[in-house]
Structures are given as C-alpha cells and as structure tokens.
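Q: Hi! First time asking for a complex rather than a single chain. Here are the components, and I think there are two in total. Is that enough to go on?
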Amino acid sequence: MSKPLVVFDKVQKHFGNFVAVKELDFEIREGEFLAIMGPSGCGKTTTLRMLAGLEAPSVGEIRLNDHVMNDVAPHERDTPLVWQSLALFPFLTARENVEFGLKMRGVDKAERRKRALKWLDKMDILEFADRDISTLSGGQKQRVALARSLVMEPQILLLDEPLSALDAHLVIRMQAVLTDLQRELGITFVYVTHSQSEAFAMADRVIIMGKGEIAQIGSPKDIYREPANQFVAEFVGRNNILSGKVASLSDDTARIATPSGDFTVPTKEVHLVKGQKASFVISADLLHISIDEPDARNKAHCKLISEEFVGSMVTLFLENSTGHEFKVQMQERELSKFDLKSGAEIWLSWDTASAHVLNEN
Amino acid sequence: MLSSSGRKFNLYALTWRLPIIFWQFIFFVGPVLFMVAMSFFLVKNYRMTEAFEFVNWSKMLSRGYFWDSYWYTVFIAGVSTICAMCIAFPAAFALAFRASESTRRWAIFLLIIPFFTSYLVRTFSWFVILSESGVINGMLGYIGLGPYTMLNTSFGTLVGYMTLTLPLVVILQTVTMANIDKNLIEAARNLGCSAFRTIWQVIIPLSKTGLIIAAIFCFILSFGDFVAPFYLGGSQEPTLPILILDTTKSGQQWPRAAVVAIMMMATLFAIAFAGIALAYRKKKGAK
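A: Yes, that's all I need. Here is the structure of the assembled complex.
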C-alpha cells in the first residue's frame, strides 16, 4: 500500500472575508493520478496553488513527505506546475524554457542542455528546440510546458486545467500522453479540471469539490455509480435523480414515493426512516427501454423528446407525464432495433440494485 | 469588391491623416530642410547670405570645443538616462507589483501633475534647495558639513534632467511592468527562481521594449534640454543646446548653429533608431 506523499490537514484559505477553501482534509498517495474536479469557484485551483506555495494556507497544515510546507517559499519547493495559460517565457526558445528550472537550480550549461534536449525528444518536439515559443502550435506549446516541469524530475507534478485551451481531438491525444507519462515515470500527478471526461479518463482517484469543500473522494467508477450526494450527482451528470419520501421499508430495500411513481431502492449502505425525504440516482446507462410495459418493480412511462449522438453512443432525453426528465445512454446499434421517432411513447425500467440512495446534504 | 472597399477605406483614412501630414510638412520637414540649406550659407558683415559652401561644416567639425561639447552632452545625457532608469525602477516596481490597482491609478495621476507647471519654474525652485545658502546646505550645516557647491556643476545639470524626465520614466516603466502576465512571474518562482532573481530573469526581459522606450525618451529629453545645463549647470561645460545659443549670439553665426543642430538631430535619430531596433529585436539568433 502506498504511503501518503502529501497531507492536507484541516486546511483553510481565506481572502479577506471571502472563504475560498472551507476545510480540506485529505491525502495524496505516492504515485497516484489524482484529479480535483469541481465547478469554477469551488476552490480547486486555490488548493493546487497552496500545494505549490503560491498561496499560504490561512489555517491548517500541508505536509509533503512529512515536512510541514506552510512556510517554504515557492522557489524552494519541488512542486512544478503546468499552468492553464502554460505560462511559457516568450523571450526564450523552447529549449531555453525547458532549461529554465535547471538554470535556477545551478545545473551547469552542458548538463542542462543535455537534459532539456532529452525531454524535448521524449515529448516528440526535439525538432522545435530552437524555435521561438510564439511560432509553436497549441499542442507543441503544451508539450514544452510539460517538458519544462518534468525536466526537474519532481516527485509530484501539478497540472491546472492544462488541456482547456486545446481542440477536442488534441485533448484526447494529450490525455493519452499524460497517462502514459504518469505510468512510465511513476510520479504523482495532481490534475485540476472542471471537465468530467478528462478527470474520469485519466485519474486513479477523483476529488469532487464544491464551495470550498470536498464533496466526495473516490475512484471515477465510485463517483459515477455511487455519488455521495445530490451535488455530486448533478455535477457528474448523465444520470437520473429522483426525490420523494420513504413509503415503506423492508430488510434491505425501501419503497420511495416520488411524483413520478413509487420505486424500490437498496438500503444496505444507508439508514432510512419511514416518512423521511430521500433522493436516489440511477446512471443513464443502467436504464432499459421497451415498447410494451415491462414486468419490473421500477418502471416509468415516458415520451421521447430528443436524442444526442456521440460516436456510437446515444443519449435519449425523455419526459414522463409529470414533466420529470429522464436520460438514457445506450449503444446506437441497440437503439436502432426500436426504430423510435421523436414523441414516441416508451417504457423505462431498471434493476433495484442500479439505484443508489444519496446522502441528504 | 474587396479591393474597392479597401480603396474607399484608404481614402477615408487618408482624409483623417491629412491634417497631421500637412502639419508635419509645414512645421517639421520644412524647417529641417531650411536648416540643412542654411548650414551651407555664409555670414558676411553680420548678414546671412545664400550660398553653397562647406566652410561652416569644416570649421565647426574641426574645432576642439565642438567635440568637447558633443561628447560631454552625450556623456551627461547618458548618465542622466542611467540615473533616471535606476531611480525610477524601484518605484515603478512597487507600483506595478505591490500597489493595488487604485493606488497605481492615483500614483500615475500624481506623476502627471508636475507637467502642469512649467519646467522652467520647477527648475528655478531648485535654486532654493541647492544653493550655497539653500535648504540642503543649511541642513548639512547643522551636522557640521558643507557647504557644498551644487549649483553650476554637472550635478546641478543632472538634478535638472531628473526633474524633467523622472515622472515620465516612472510612468512608462510602471505601465510596462503592470502589463506583465503575473503567471509568468509565478511560473519562474515555481521553477526555483527567487523573488529577487525574477527581476533579472523574467521582469526585465518581459518589459524590455517598454524599458528601452523609457530610456530613449529620457536620453532625448536630456540631450536636447537647454534649461538644466544653463541654469543649474551654469553652462560651465556647455552642452550642445548652449553651444547653439552661443554660436548664434557671437557674430550671428546661424549657419554654424545649424551645423550643431543637424549633428544633434543626426545623433538623436541614430540613438532612437538603434534603441527601437533593440527594443523590438526578436532573438539573439539561432545558436
């Protein structure tokens, strides 16, 4: 089991009266790819900046390798950051940019040149070594920025939405580059993003932040299938949230009455009381559709509103008689068997085990 | 279609530019051409007569006092530029990086205020401060020092130049450095560069263009200034503007004064051209 590399111990950050980070208490494991995800203003970038020493925590302690880092100046830390704006030095060539950190560390000229070229080669941009930064494309600049940080051979690499400025196809390619690099080098990556697809595609663990607090920590699968609360469920999206009151309880299930009907949910991991409010979520890809009314405990009769194709996957948007929206995700070839038109009436159903009860908060 | 609209646009732009072109021709190009022509005129019995002789040029350029004055002016304007750039930098740095947006705005406003009053008036106020019985010598007297002669020296000239140039240099430096992308400074810190070192490694390279333009302004203003060397420097060592005045006064030698003026303009052209080329130079060249 890997030991914690970084510990955030009850860390808070205030800017005047504004509380950017309410309280953070978590660990970063050695060698993991950790994504910190949340809507803008949730404090994710502030968290990363505190780790790099660009902001000092107002309360609490940040420890790296068991050393308290609170008062260590940014230039004395070994926590290189890849910036959203890349922040490459425009007055230096690609190679000089990569050499910058080594120069500051007092590495001699021949050695730093050798190491810079090695990294430029590794990032597949050796041929642009002596080019001006302004003459490089977005993807090439991205690679220079990565090389500039990785040439320092750090234990931990911080990334602040580094792919947000790239075209969609480049994002996919850079994701592969990043995950390969992380696996190959075995160093810890802390990746801040607002993009669920980036976080889920790359990270071993994801932290979902909202309003300066951690909403959930877990593997991408845990967060997708079993969101801790309504905030996470809504933020992750592509799922169906139903709310109502607990109507009856049995051993390990409960019946919840919602405006859209009564549904059965598993209660192994939660404690519900009869009459209390409860919400549950079902991932969009766990719903089944049928033309005839199915013989199932959980079903809803809906009208098809629209469809959205992304490659071979399709998302159906449906509405029941109370106006509640349902989302269903399925393979396009599955859907084509049904020959549906907009406005078609269909039945949705799901297994009780697919539902996941949310914590109230 | 594209070309016709392009032409229409050009005509429109030209209409707006005409007044300034006209102004430049009447009041700049014309007089300069006349001055160049005048440098070849002759003076007979205190009267200027039209001619085309090189005598003014050969006389002026072979005189030791001309070259003494020329190199002294280049030197003192250079010293002035270095002093102004160095004195202004910490202030501009603090305004650009430490001060809040509103403090910076107020500071720039306050730095413009000196230009409300005549430079000549501001220069005279230095008499009170710098003279043998002035404020500074008075204070030094209390601790048993001085009096020091500050008026009618090169020091006095420099004080005058600073009065003229410092507010402008601080403004130009501040505006330049305030526009630096703060991420780049943080990126340098993140890569192991101490706060002090970022000045040389990041801030100066990034503000190079603005800093050089500030220096050019400072040099041009000092080089051509008449007031400071005349009143505060006491024309001890005459700068070129003083030499021009002296030359016109002694025997109505306007043509020789024109030679000095042309030499000054040529120098400033060269300095400004070289400076701007340096400011916008792309790279040291591939190594």
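A: Chain B touches chain A at residues 181, 183-184, 186-195, 197, 201-202, 205-206, 208, 282-283, 286-287 (CB under 8 Å). Let me know if you'd like any chain examined more closely.
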